[in-house]
Amino acid sequence: METPYKTYYAHAPKDIEHFSTDELREDFLVEKIFEPGEIVLNYTHHDRMIFGGVTPTEKELEIVLNKSLGVDYFLERRELGVINIGGPGVITIDGNEEPMKKQDGFYIGKETKDVRFKSDDASNPAKFYVVSTPAHKVYPTVKLAIDNIDPKVMGDAKTLNHRSIYQYVHPNQCESCQLQMGYTILSEGSAWNTMPAHTHERRMETYLYFDMAEDTRVMHFMGEPDATKHLVMSNEQAAISPSWSIHSGVGTSDYTFIWAMCGENITYEDMDHVDMKDLK
């Protein structure tokens, strides 16, 4: 049985000019990523990224996609990034079991036929955040353990954006076709991410916000730099950011987010910066 997914269609900037709050949330916000015992997937036509959550409890779970993608198995023409943000678990890749504690990740290359997910403890399940993009070449599968990643520290407490960036699927750690993926932790007292803002004309991006208290929120800003809009987001929700859109947020408290990008290249610094005076 194929794993179901929700489809999000691509938009041009003019499409959202008169969107209501509900319309904006329907097309760019994923309100539920992790469901105990389930796989929740989303397919966006922005660069054909598939992303979502795998939350095994009593039994192991496997993503099964073939007919809907026109392939014999899920990763026949795709690569996959995985980061666990929940309890300890295990990922089995073509028969090889690998333990995955919180913050551990994996890059899984094209043509990998069998990927399965399970939790060590059903009452404290692993939460595997998965992101898949089309791939043209087989690159080696690599475990990306948090203990082996040195964070890139950016920002300043004075500007409320002191943060540590952990680059997982990135040329510093492994090769990939077009997928990039990482993990940003804001320091206590900091609230802003990615400000001053930028766009990626050659890449789209998704953000998953998490490690948030129940009564906190993130205001995620999107849209063209001179026509910004926002989404009010809570814990473990994700936002889709087209290449023409800024992607920046401010929280009522500190938080963590996973960013994932795909597009024409994998140059992390390939971005178009926006001056603060040009934001509207």
Automatic annotation (TrEMBL):
UniProt keyword list: Isomerase, Metal-binding, Zinc
Cofactor(s) listed in the protein's UniProt record: Zn(2+)
Catalytic activity from the UniProt record: 5-dehydro-4-deoxy-D-glucuronate = 3-deoxy-D-glycero-2,5-hexodiulosonate
Pathway entry: Glycan metabolism; pectin degradation; 2-dehydro-3-deoxy-D-gluconate from pectin: step 4/5
Positions annotated to bind Zn(2+): 198, 200, 205, 247
GO MF terms held by the record: isomerase activity
Keyword check for Isomerase: yes
Family classification: Belongs to the KduI family.
Enzyme Commission number(s) of this protein: 5.3.1.17
Known role: Catalyzes the isomerization of 5-dehydro-4-deoxy-D-glucuronate to 3-deoxy-D-glycero-2,5-hexodiulosonate.
Pfam families in the record: KduI
Cofactor note (record): Binds 1 zinc ion per subunit.
Protein's name in the database: 4-deoxy-L-threo-5-hexosulose-uronate ketol-isomerase
InterPro entries attached to this UniProt entry: KduI, KduI/IolB_isomerase, KduI_N, RmlC-like_jellyroll, RmlC_Cupin_sf
Record carries keyword Transcription: no
